[in-house]
Design a protein that fits this description.
CATH architecture: Sandwich
Order of helices and strands: HEEEEEEEEEEEE
Amino acid sequence: MSTKIGTRPQDIPLNQFLGEMAFMDANPRVVALAQKNTGMTLNTSATPVQFPNTLYDTHRGFSNTNSRYTVPFSGDYMVMFHVNILSNSNVTNVGVRVDGSLYSNYQISDTNHPRKYFTFTGIIPNMLAGQYIEIHAYLNTGSVSMDNAGNWMIYKM
């Protein structure tokens, strides 16, 4: 029996194909869930939002040290998060970054709020195994406190 799908050099091994198909045919599932349990200060530098409490992580992709999730498998991922930003009269920006760069302008901005609850859901297609996702936040001017409430969930599509 052949061990590859097809006969050309770029064709993939049969066991890799069957593994990818089994994973793709499954319903979307949570692969990671982290929670904020510490406050932090935001300023004009885009800073990774800290989610130091990992509740669930199927492939140990969360790093509590640098607040990022490294994807274990290539494919599409859905990112969901919510965070609270306290008293602020400046523009607050919260966004998703892939490998350190803002992903496709996935950013939420708001201004003049006493307390803002930022919620985001988006799909990041075509992630490669080993790439990482971060949630970053910053202000246009000054500094502001972010409280300890918030969650970050990652689904494999």
